[in-house]
Amino acid sequence: MINWHPIVVHFPVALVISAAAMLWAARLVPGARAAALATVGTWNLCLGTVAAVFAIGTGLAAVIGLHVGAAAHLAISVHLRWAFVTSLVLVFLSVWRGAGTAADSRPSWLFVALLSGAAAALMVTAYLGGENVYRHGIGVQAVASGP
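Request: output the structure for the sequence above.
Response:
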């Protein structure tokens, strides 16, 4: 069975970081361009949140039946905790932005600050996932070497 997690994880990172950048720009840029930036930022945030939830599902599917040592197990659990908390915050922010306000409205300072924190937490989560692969070898298949 194919492990979809390494493919899926790139979508929430790209979408949420670009959402934060666009919503910051919508907050700072005067005029009509702010509405377009806010709309695209809102869509990216909502799609990034869906992708983050999907990434958790594919990550959980990837660790089913995985046999690793104690250090790798601890690294996986830390990564999962960061992923769950970050995704929960993203769901909250998406509902606030997607259902609580008009998509083309200028976001509040509080909202962009919280979104920046969530984007930073997502980057930490991604870093920890990368460490799981490159430091602990989780999900890496051993390749038989030739003679």
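The first helix runs from residue 5 to 8.
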